[in-house]
Each structure stands twice: as structure tokens, then as C-alpha cells.
């Protein structure tokens, strides 16, 4: 039970192939060395006029001829060497199995090479999974940020990791997700003595000392409460639990677009037990849900704020990932998914669609999708999101389009509770 079964049969073939490959590299190298030498010998002994009696040209002309001949031969040799090197690099790349990330570049940190190295299974193909080698997972877009990635993987093995959470976040936001693993000790935070027991932890202020401010412009929560809307529409001052606004959310509505948690929970057909909150800011949605015995995972990216540390300090489950990444959850698992304006990644219709399909995937049939104050910048945007939702065939349990006056002009918001249908 639980053991990996390995079949010996196919293994020998694989190893033979690897040996042939290695010999091919050696052969090619030998070949290029030999040809190089032969060319040199040829160039220096070559005499275009075998008949000496015909040598009636003057010596200067001859010398000129000799020199140009040599130059020609040398450039031929150089070409040959270059093409051999290209072939070698190609073979090396194929052996490493990475086409997009060029590990043969001179400044590639050895840790990156070691992490990405493919390892053949010692006994060949695994009969259960069909795999023949162990591979490490890394975002394919990492190849576009090789300079940052190399910096990230340049550290002392078994030593302390560099203080580079900002660099990690930068890489992830450029699509380098997942990041490669590292063999260094991440900086620890002295959380002991600062944490509160659950459920009191849900509403206690979090100390500046137990979150990492690495890579953030603010270095304390006082600073954070002064940057206002910079944290996004769904999280205006959401890290300030004492301002009297954050702890009213989901229990006291300010407008018809704000649904109450009790109302929504009563709509769930077979009960709501587990949920996912997308771009959940400081985790307040999960905190309110925790009081109703609903376990909610809060997806949060540390944009300008130490969201993951904060959510964890409240005794809630933070999920550090960008919204470009496929959700690391199985199909049909959640009873509830909650999302707001953050859903609209850059206003691209296709991007929103990919995200919506992934939300639909992780939500079970009969589960609820709570779209909470989705900001519709234009009427067209409102039509887009409406059309998109209708395509999924969800039952509209609640549907409210309301206006809010924000910064002088009135803004359009959509709030909805939708039930995922059973599809054939
Ligand atoms: C040109 O090369 C030939 C041999 O290939 C040699 O006999 C001759 O002296 C050379 N001429 C000069 C001017 O170097
Ligand atoms: C908070 O950080 C700001 C700079 O970001 C600094 O000016 C201020 O003194 C800090 N306040 C406290 C209470 O540490």
C-alpha cells in the first residue's frame, strides 16, 4: 500500500537511449576536433599550383594569394566549429529536457540547473503512472525573466535565504508561477507570543512585528491604513480592523448591493461548508464565514500589503497565488465561491472568461457563486459580464445592479448570488 511500483522491463531501453545520446555527444566532439585539425593541416600545406614551373607570378602576388587562401580556410574552420557548437548545445538542451529555459547559458546558477534536472527512474517506466523520469515543476513564463530568476536562485545552499520576498512576488506577477523550490532557510518571523487563540484571533489587530514587510513600500499598519484605495476596490482600508467599517462588512449592509452572510447561506441547497474567497484582502469574508462554521480559503496576492501573514494571524487559511494560475483544487469541491471586482483582470474579456471557467470548475453543482459588488466601468462591461454569466446557465438567486457615488461620479456595481446547475 502506498508504494510506487516500478517495472524493470522498459528501463533498460531508456538507459540504452541515454547512453547512445551521450556517445553521440562524445562522437560529435571528437569529430569536430578532428575536422578542425585536418582543416588546419590542409590550409597550411595546400598548394594550388602543383606544377612548379607555372609559378611565374611575382612573389608579392603569390603571398597575397597565399594569405587570402589561408583566411578563406580559417573562416571555413570557424564556421565548422560554430555549427558543431550549435549542435552540441541543442543536444545538451534536449538531454536536459528544457527548450525554453536555456540552462547552458554561462551565468545560470547551479541551483537552478540542479532543481530542473530530470531524473530517470532507476527501474524505468512506472507501470501505474506511465512516467519514466522525475521532473520539477516551474512556470514556463519563467524563461522570460531569466535575469530575475537567476537572481532568485543565487543563494547559499543550507544557508539563510536572501530577504527577497519582493523579488519572488515580482517573478510570480510576471507569470513565473510556480516558482522553483530552493534549498535555503526562509527568514523566520517571531510570531510566538503575538498570536491570539481562535476565534478571538479573527478580530484582533495584528502586530507590525509578525508580518513580513519585505518588498512592500509600507513598513507598518499605520502606513497601510493611510494609502486608502491603493489596495483595490474590494479592500479599502481592509487591514484596519478597528475602523468600524471592516468588521461591519457582510453583517451590516450599506446599500442594496451588499448582501448579508445569513441571507446568502440560507440559499445554499445542501448547506455551505467549504468555500473559496478570491482576492480576499485581509480575510474578513473568511472570518465572518468561520463564525458560521464555514471554512473558507482566502486567495490573496501580497499587493502593497502583507495579506498572507495577516490572514494567517487571524487564524484563517491564506492561499498565495496570482489569479493567472489555475486554482490548485480538484473539480466540483467547493460549496461557495466569493469574488468581487478583482475578478476583472485588466479588463480583458478572454481573461475573465478563463477565470470564470476555472471558478465554475471548482464549484460543485448546486454550489453558490457570490459576485460581490463587481465594478462595471462601462455599460458595455456590464453587458459583457451579464452575457458571460448567462452562458454558464446559473440560476439567479439574487441579482442587483446598483449605483454608488464614488469620487464625484456615479459608478455601476453588480452583485449576484448564482447557483451552479447540474450539467449533463
Ligand atoms: C606560397 O605558398 C607556397 C606553398 O604553398 C610556397 O612555396 C610559396 O613560397 C608561398 N609564397 C609566399 C610569397 O609566401
Ligand atoms: C510607520 O512607517 C512610516 C513609514 O512608512 C513611518 O514614518 C512611521 O513612523 C511608522 N510608524 C510607526 C508607529 O512605526
Q: Which features does this protein show?
A:
single chain, 424 residues, alpha/beta, Rossmann fold, 3 domains, 7-stranded mixed beta sheet, 11 helices, 14% strand, elongated, disordered N terminus, binds 2-acetamido-2-deoxy-beta-D-glucopyranose, SAM-dependent_MTases_sf
Structural description of this entry:
The chain is of the alpha/beta class. The chain folds into 3 domains: 71 residues; 64 residues, no CATH class; 220 residues, Vaccinia Virus protein VP39 (Rossmann fold, 3-Layer(aba) Sandwich). Helix content is 35%, strand content 14%. It contains 11 helices and 9 strands. The strands form 2 sheets. A 7-stranded mixed β-sheet has the order 5-4-3-6-7-9-8. A hairpin with a 2-residue loop joins strand 8 and strand 9. The longest helix has 38 residues. It is elongated, with a radius of gyration of 31 Å. The two termini are 35 Å apart. The N terminus is likely disordered. The structure holds 2-acetamido-2-deoxy-beta-D-glucopyranose (2 copies). One 2-acetamido-2-deoxy-beta-D-glucopyranose binds next to helix 6. The site of one 2-acetamido-2-deoxy-beta-D-glucopyranose (NAG) has 5 residues, from helix 6.
Task: Describe the protein's topology.
Elements: H1 11-45, H2 59-96, H3 110-116, E1 119-120, E2 133-134, H4 146-152, H5 165-173, H6 221-224, H7 261-265, E3 274-277, H8 284-291, E4 295-300, H9 307-313, E5 317-320, E6 334-339, H10 349-362, E7 363-376, H11 379-392, E8 395-406, E9 409-419
Parallel strand pairs: 3-4, 3-6, 4-5, 6-7
Antiparallel strand pairs: 1-2, 7-9, 8-9
Bound molecules: 2-acetamido-2-deoxy-beta-D-glucopyranose (2 copies).
One 2-acetamido-2-deoxy-beta-D-glucopyranose binds next to helix 6.
Amino acid at each position: 500500500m502506498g508504494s510506487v511500483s516500478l517495472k524493470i522491463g522498459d528501463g533498460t531501453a531508456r538507459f540504452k537511449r541515454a547512453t547512445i545520446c551521450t556517445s553521440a555527444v562524445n562522437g560529435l566532439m571528437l569529430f569536430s576536433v578532428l575536422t578542425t585539425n585536418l582543416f588546419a593541416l590542409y590550409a597550411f600545406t595546400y598548394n594550388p599550383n602543383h606544377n612548379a614551373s607555372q609559378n611565374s607570378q611575382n612573389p608579392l602576388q603569390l603571398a597575397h594569394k597565399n594569405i587570402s587562401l589561408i583566411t578563406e580556410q580559417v573562416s571555413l574552420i570557424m564556421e565548422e566549429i560554430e555549427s558543431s557548437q550549435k549542435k552540441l548545445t541543442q543536444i545538451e538542451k534536449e538531454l536536459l529536457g528544457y527548450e525554453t529555459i536555456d540552462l547552458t547559458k554561462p551565468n545560470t546558477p547551479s541551483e537552478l540547473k540542479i532543481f530542473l534536472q530530470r531524473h530517470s527512474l532507476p527501474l524505468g517506466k512506472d507501470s501505474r503512472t506511465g512516467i519514466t523520469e522525475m521532473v520539477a515543476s516551474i512556470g514556463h513564463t519563467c524563461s522570460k525573466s531569466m535575469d530575475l530568476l537567476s537572481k532568485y536562485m543565487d543563494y547559499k545552499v543550507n544557508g539563510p535565504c536572501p530577504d527577497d520576498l519582493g523579488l519572488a512576488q515580482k517573478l510570480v506577477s510576471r507569470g513565473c508561477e510556480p516558482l522553483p523550490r530552493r534549498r535555503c532557510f526562509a527568514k523566520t518571523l517571531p510570531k510566538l507570543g503575538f498570536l491570539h487563540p481562535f476565534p478571538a484571533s479573527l478580530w484582533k489587530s495584528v502586530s507590525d512585528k509578525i508580518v513580513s514587510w519585505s518588498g512592500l513600500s509600507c513598513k507598518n499598519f499605520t502606513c497601510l491604513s493611510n494609502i486608502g484605495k491603493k489596495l483595490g476596490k474590494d479592500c479599502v482600508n481592509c487591514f484596519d480592523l478597528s475602523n468600524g467599517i471592516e468588521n461591519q462588512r457582510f453583517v451590516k449592509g450599506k446599500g442594496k448591493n451588499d448582501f448579508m452572510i445569513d441571507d446568502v447561506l440560507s440559499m445554499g441547497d445542501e448547506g455551505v461548508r467549504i468555500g473559496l474567497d478570491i482576492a480576499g484582502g485581509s480575510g474578513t469574508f473568511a472570518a465572518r464565514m468561520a463564525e458560521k462554521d464555514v471554512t473558507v480559503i482566502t486567495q490573496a496576492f501580497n499587493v502593497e500589503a502583507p495579506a498572507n501573514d495577516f490572514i494567517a494571524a487571524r487564524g484563517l487559511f491564506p492561499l498565495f497565488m496570482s489569479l493567472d494560475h489555475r486554482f490548485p483544487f480538484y473539480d466540483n469541491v467547493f460549496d461557495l465561491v466569493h469574488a468581487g471586482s478583482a475578478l476583472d483582470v485588466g479588463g480583458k474579456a478572454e481573461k475573465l472568461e478563463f477565470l470564470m471557467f476555472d471558478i465554475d470548475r471548482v464549484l460543485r453543482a448546486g454550489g453558490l457563486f457570490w459576485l460581490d459588488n463587481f465594478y462595471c466601468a462601462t455599460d458595455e462591461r456590464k453587458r459583457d459580464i451579464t452575457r458571460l454569466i448567462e452562458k454558464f446557465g446559473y440560476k439567479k438567486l439574487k441579482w442587483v445592479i446598483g449605483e454608488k457615488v464614488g469620487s464625484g461620479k456615479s459608478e455601476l456595481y453588480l452583485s449576484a448570488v448564482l447557483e451552479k446547475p447540474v450539467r449533463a
